[in-house]
Amino acid sequence: DRSSAASVVYKRQILGLFASVLKPTSGIMSVQGKLAPLLELGAGFHPELSGQENIVLNGVLLGMLKEEVEEKTDSIIAFSELDEFIDQPIRTYSSGMLARLGFSVAVHSDPDILLVDEVLAVGDQDFQKKCIKKMLSFKENGKTIVFVSHVFEQIRKFCDRVIWISNGLV
Hints:
Layout: H1 2-18, E1 35-38, H2 51-61, H3 66-80, H4 95-108, E2 113-117, H5 125-140, E3 144-148, H6 152-158
Parallel strand pairs: 1-2, 2-3
């Protein structure tokens, strides 16, 4: 229906403002700290590069030095559980595999703010639990998580404050 389509547009605009992909048409938007956005599966990945090469590309896009990415690559691959596929081109990855790799790189970039948009909706249950555990450790360490979801149980688990958007209104 039109109201849910409009909500998706508003959600994307708000997340785009947080990620500094969009600029506000009025007012000021300020984000302080290192931000790791997980907004769209495969964002920041090049389809023809291998998973290994995309770890470096995505890590650098998230603000890490190449040497830092290379130092963390084994941990990123281990967390993603994609070691068997890491040398294959990203274009051969399923949406769940893209989510695994994207999440793994993002959390290893040591962000102050983790911006997560429904990325946990794909993939298997065990990996979802692993991601939830990692996000809870971020929260326990005082990191900020901006979490978008339609799953109330997950919202209750992560969020101290909630913004409910309905028909474009808070």
